[in-house]
Amino acid sequence: MSWIYIILAGLFEVAGVAGISELNKRISAANVTLMIGGFLVSFVFMSLAMQDLAMGTAYAVWTGIGTVGSAIVGILFYKEPKSFLRLFFIALVLCSVIGLKLIG
Q1: Which of 11, 89, 6 is nearest to 46 (CA)?
Q2: Are 69 and 23 contacting, i.e. CB atoms less than 8 angstroms apart?
Q3: Which pick of 4, 29, 33, 89 has the fewest CB atoms within 10 Å?
């Protein structure tokens, strides 16, 4: 169950980062709620995951999911560049997260 919690924590971190991006465009209650709510729920799931996972593994997976997820959201919704090298390094981060799951 802890791996599900850490995945959810990473996904809600992406929501929080999207909230920051939206706040930079327009300050509104919905954007503030998205940012604060995303990070708050992310921290709750991170805390639940760390009851069973080692701190280093949990944090690395959480930040990896957040990094890859935010980069993908940026490419898909915010017209950020999707060059080969950018996608290659995103894939490396994803492979590292998967590797931590396999060994930990």
Answers
A1: 6
A2: no
A3: 29
Per-residue pLDDT of 76-87, as tens digits, reads: 999 999 999 999
CA distance 69 to 38: 13
What is the reported pLDDT for 104?
Answer: 67
Nearest to 104 by CA among 47, 48, 53: 53
Which tokens hold the place of 82? 């999707």
Which two three-digit tokens encode residue 69? 């997820």
Q: Which amino acid is at 2?
A: S
Residue type, position 17, single letter: V
- What are the domain boundaries of the chain? 2-103
pTM: 0.89
Of 49, 79, 85, whose CA–CA distance to 65 is shortest? 49
- Model pLDDT for residues 4-37, shown as the tens digit of each residue: 999 999 999 999 999 999 999 999 999 999 999 9
Task: Tell me the two tokens of residue 103.
Answer: 């060994």
